[in-house]
Amino acid sequence: MRERRWSRWVVVLAVLAAGCVAARSPVATEAEFRRWSGEDPARAEAFARFQAMLSAAGVGGVVPAYDLWIADRLKPKCLVETFVAPPDEDWPNIVPVPRFIRDHVKPAIGEVRVVSGYRDPAFNACVGGAPASAHKEFYAVDLLPVDRAVTRERLISTLCAIHQREGARAGIGLGIYAGRRFHLDARSYRGWGADYRRASSPCRANRVPGPSRGPETRKITRHHK
């Protein structure tokens, strides 16, 4: 009888533990990053160089630098590491994105946090990313606004207006997904929605004119998912 009760408690604890993992915040913490970087001195050395690159480009501190190395937690089964270092040669690709966030996004909706940054080929395939996803070359991030007062409706109206006004000049693409999650990348000026098609862009649905030359479905599927 005692063995049966003990077995039941083991099952209950296992279920609770699994629930805690599933409920992990999509946003990284500095403590998590310190643990990860502390496991290998090369990680800390590379990150120091990455921070220096951001500062030299004038975009240090726009978002926590470790955010840009977060591994997307949308599909926990795909996670091998909680963070991943992009290849050094790809680091400059991301610079226009925090610049756009600094100059246009944060003044309108406040602080934002990165929930998806660089994806290596294996991780990109696991999460269902396109073979030529902008995340793979470190052009792209997915973000969430910190302020809960920024509703999905406010997010859409604000980002669409910003993108219409400033996106082409900056060469920034805007994707708006489910909830309050959105995507910015420095590949090109274009817009899309939850199914990665221009026609599903909330900017169009809300009668805010989007990019005058949006990508075709095939191009979205190949490059931006």
List the helices and strands and how they pair.
Layout: H1 2-22, H2 30-38, H3 41-56, H4 96-109, E1 112-116, H5 121-126, E2 140-145, H6 152-170, E3 173-176, E4 182-185, E5 190-192, H7 202-205, H8 217-223
Parallel strand pairs: 3-5
Antiparallel strand pairs: 1-2, 2-4, 3-4
Kindly provide the name of the CATH class: Alpha Beta
C-alpha-based Rg, rounded? 19 Å
Mean pLDDT comes to 85
User: What separation lies between the terminal Cα atoms?
Assistant: 53 Å
Could you estimate the helical fraction of the residues in percent? 40-55%
User: What is the string of helix and strand elements?
Assistant: HHHHEHEHEEEHH
Number of strands: 5
Largest sheet report: 5 strands, mixed
Beta-strand content: 5-15%
Assign the CATH topology. Answer: Muramoyl-pentapeptide Carboxypeptidase, domain 2
Biggest sheet: strands side by side, in what order? Answer: 1-2-4-3-5
Could you say which structural class the secondary elements and strand pairing correspond to?
alpha+beta
- Total helical elements: 8
- Number of separate structural domains: 1
Report on the architecture of this protein.
This protein has 225 residues and is an alpha+beta fold. The protein has a single domain, classed as 2-Layer Sandwich (Muramoyl-pentapeptide Carboxypeptidase, domain 2), CATH 3.30.1380. It is built from eight helices and five strands; from the N terminus they run H-H-H-H-E-H-E-H-E-E-E-H-H. The chain has helices at residues 2-22, 30-38, 41-56, 96-109, 121-126, 152-170, 202-205, 217-223; strands at residues 112-116, 140-145, 173-176, 182-185, 190-192. The chain has a five-stranded mixed sheet with strand order 1-2-4-3-5, with helices on one face. Strand 3 (173-176) and strand 4 form a beta hairpin. Helix 4 packs antiparallel against helix 6. The relative contact order is 0.11. The model is unreliable at 9-22 and 212-222 (pLDDT under 50).
